Amino acid sequence: MTDNAAVATRLFTSESVTEGHPDKICDAISDAILDALLEKDPASRVAVETLVTTGQVHVVGEVRTEAYVEIPALVRDTLKSIGFTSSEVGFDGNTCGVNIAIGEQSQEIGAGVDNSTEARAHDEDYDAENDTAGAGDQGLMFGYASNETAEYMPLPIALAHRLSRRLTQVRKEGIVDHLRPDGKTQVTFAYTDDNEPSHLDTVVISTQHDAEVDSAWLEGPLRSEVLEWVIKDAGLEKYYTEDTTLLVNPSGSFILGGPMGDAGLTGRKIIVDTYGGMARHGGGAFSGKDPSKVDRSAAYAMRWVAKNIVAAGLADRAEVQVAYAIGRAKPVGLYVETFGTAKEGLSDANIQAAVDQVFDLRPAAIIRELDLLRPIYAQTAAYGHFGRTDVELPWEQLNRVEALRAAAGL
Q1: Is the confidence at residue 3, as pLDDT, over 60?
Q2: Structural domain of residue 52, as residue ranges?
Q3: Fewest C-beta atoms under 10 Å: which of 109, 277, 320, 358?
Q4: Both 376 and 391 in a single domain?
Q5: Which of 117, 31, 57 is nearest to 363 (CA)?
Q6: List 8, 15, 19, 23, catalytic entry
Q7: 24 is catalytic
Q8: Catalytic-residue membership of 84
């Protein structure tokens, strides 16, 4: 045991999955369809769900659009880009069945989004630009940020995503042979009583592989080319000790994977998609939904808010909740929690007042400020929606730091 390990009393774990995981296949297909529709018609309303199972892809949902896209071709291209090109690896994007059952968006839901409660009332303070569009559903959304990492993310999920991305990279580039698309990573960090990460305790890498190799053979290359490569690349050497445990395919062989091993569904990896369990979650999934759905757009906005709070030095950790009523533009709730880390002299109520002053959280304002009516969503379908170091996403921008500091009186 190291000195750091001796004072660490708690172990926190987060997981990630690769793009070849059955649920992530579904997220990728749903977001590929969304992007294709937004590219041709930015006003598209989209709610698309995907199910994959042995030899079959089912795409269902509701859409309102002026665009036409060839959905079966999108499905097959997505599967092949992931690496599912033969039944031997668990799925063949060239020959699988593709079934489509997409209807029109409910007129009642559409009317609530197009003509909000505020628009119908047309009060004196009615703002046509921002009050016309109502929330696409009721619900609550959370955002979170911390100063644990340079990307303002909790360290466990940040490392888990880096490992999953690298696992896919070494497969696709042939750096490690005999790997197949399906895979998962899991990271356990020891934390001190002061909520500081102390050391990396356990890493699990489960990866689908060819029949001619076993998990014992994979441990060496996965340790050097995935775990140790990522630790060095991310500058996390101080957490990686001789006591860190690596478990590779701890259940044994992992030959049968992808949709042949497990059925997959859109929206079943909401903790992987967000903060790895370190923050609360409102329950709504992201993939396949256009930004009129506040499940997606408001969760992105809450990440934007929380990240700017921490970057502004108002707190070391911030969790922000917003809530909406369907068809209403103005949020019905806003709540800020900093877990006792607010800057001296500031309360959570002070920070919440600053947020309310600096950020407009009506759906139309969120969509405009973050420029969300664009085909930017397929790149978020795997490896997390927040804190990405490999792609640029508008809700990660730090463009409200000075305004927050001024509003908080700093």
Answers
A1: no
A2: 22-127
A3: 277
A4: yes
A5: 117
A6: 23
A7: yes
A8: no
